[in-house]
Amino acid sequence: MNWPTSASRLASVSLVAVALLGLTTGCEEANDLGLELPGTSPITANYLDLPVTAYTVRQQPVETIQADQLLVGRLRDSFVGTTTAKGYLNLQVVTSDTIPSTFTAHRLDSVVVTLPFNQVYGSAAQPLRFDLQALAQPLDERAVYNSTSSVATSNTLLAGLSAPLNRTRTVKRRVGSGVSSDTTTTVITTTEPDQVVRVRLLRYANTATLANSVFTALKDGTPTQAKLDAVWKGIALEASANHSGNIVGFSSNTGASVSFYYTATATVGTVTKVRSRLYRLLLANGLSGLPGKYFTQIATDLSGTPLAGLTTAQSQVPAVASNGFTYAQGGIGLGTRIEFQGLDNLRNSTDIAINRAELIVPIKQNSNALFPYPNGLYLYEVNNANAVLTRTVGATTYERLVPAEGTNSLSGARLTPSSAGPGVAPAVATVPAGQDPVQQYSVPLTEYLQAYLQNRLEGELPSGLVLSPTLRSSSVLNLNRAQLDANNIKLRVYYSKLR
Questions:
Q1: What is the pLDDT of residues 7-55, one digit of tens each?
Q2: Would you indicate the residue range of the signal peptide (predicted)?
Q3: What are phi and psi of 212, to 5 degrees?
């Protein structure tokens, strides 16, 4: 990466060195840059663009346990290959919800698996075709699951289910005038997306038998998790073999459940009545503050694409092998490794002083048809084997991220990567406001560059940085992707001439 290997007393560069580098240079008004340089008379600030060597790498596994989405489906993509996502979920008894033991003559009317979704990657006009499987054992509360984990299933309950993803529903709302004395209301009818996948278990012989067995085991007024696990240990949702049109992101914080609609006879005193009731089991999705166990298995077949060489964690594909582009994609673990060139020339000179450094990462225009652009890219410090550097604080090991500006206000202090503890923000490359269409990500790196050049970084010096949309310590899971114009990634360094 041509990082400097010794300390320097100031992040600065001589004009002779700049000329030898043959780098792109420019000049802008300092006030336009917001540098807040001292002095009352107008001055100029020059800049140089340090070149960057870029590669696509793959960081696996991805943490998918109890994430904000459960992904299910399969999607073919000419740039990256075929991605398949399979979801595994436990079922949960809600102890506050029971079928009264005083009820008799129970009759099960309907059983519905309800799966709300909030994201479709690929075509929403094409239904999701999937199989519903039963787990051989409940997910272990003590086990660690991630994108590469696999869990045994006992049998396929339903195969080839078709779930429309573009349905709508009509909603009527009553709207008053807002005046307390006015009792009139207006009914407004609107149409909104119906983003719920529903599976009616009593329609199919195999699942009807299972639904009745579960209801029988739990209808005695004292439902327990052990009784449920003895009959139904959990479910897996997997794309059918012939499906390749989309991947659906099921929300992990809204209404995923198995609903049992039933009627029963209830006797109160001498009066006997038939009651219609609902009993519900939760799919393990964190609903109502009851987190359960669930995760997504994600596999991507890279064969036949320029990224087929990413066979190991140490593998990397240079941008030239993928038509000048590199990738950063959540879920499947793609990131862009960058190595700055020419940093050795920014040392041991007093001719100029660095005022600001900014990493500029151009995006291929309109490349978000299948996958939305990530909201931001994090910068991980890595070694030559693309392993993220770590730091141990107490008994906890943290991955090292480039910290946000302002972490070290004292120029002489050592700069500690932000993942050394909670509460310290990492640097994030974001899209500047107002870009339409989106053109680039950018992130200020002034403090980090100065600390690096002056050998003020805590711990091992990185040989490169990996740009990734995934903050691995968070619960966010998605397949958002940036296709980066690797030939034009640059570290722009603004400097002032010293007089």
A1: 333 333 443 344 444 456 666 554 444 444 444 444 456 888 999 999 9
A2: 1-30
A3: -65, -35
361/445 Cα distance (integer angstroms): 13
Distance CA 279, CA 218 (A): 10
Separation of alpha carbons 217 and 224, rounded Å: 9
Q: How many CB atoms lie within 10 A of CB 78?
A: 8
Phi and psi for 253 in degrees, rounded to 5?
-130, 20
* Both structure tokens of 493: 């360094």
The HSE-up count of residue 226 (CA atoms within 13 Å, CB side) is 1
- Distance in angstroms (rounded) separating the CA atoms of residues 86 and 234: 14
Residue 465 CB coordination number (10 Å): 25
Distance CA 54, CA 465 (A): 10
Tell me which residue has tokens 């869990």.
Answer: 151
Report yes or no: 274 and 242 within 8 Å, Cβ to Cβ.
no
CB 295 within 8 A of CB 305: no
Q: How far is residue 37's CA from residue 81's CA, in Å, rounded to a whole number?
A: 50
For residues 365 and 207, what is the distance between their CA atoms, to the nearest angstrom?
Answer: 47
Question: What is the rounded CA–CA span in Å between residue 407 and residue 418?
Answer: 8
Length of the chain, in residues: 499
The string of pLDDT tens digits covering residues 104-156 is 999 999 999 999 999 999 999 999 999 999 999 999 988 999 999 999 999 99
Q: Provide the β-strand partners of residue 358.
A: 444, 492
8 Å CB contact between 418 and 427: yes
State whether residue 312 is helix, strand or coil. coil
Distance CA 361, CA 338 (A): 10
With beta carbons less than 8 A apart as the criterion, state whether 366 and 495 touch: no
The residue with tokens 């309800």 is 114
The string of DSSP codes covering 267-304 is EETTEEEEEEEEEEEEESS-GGG----EEEEEEEE-TT
- Beta-bridge partner residues of 326: 484
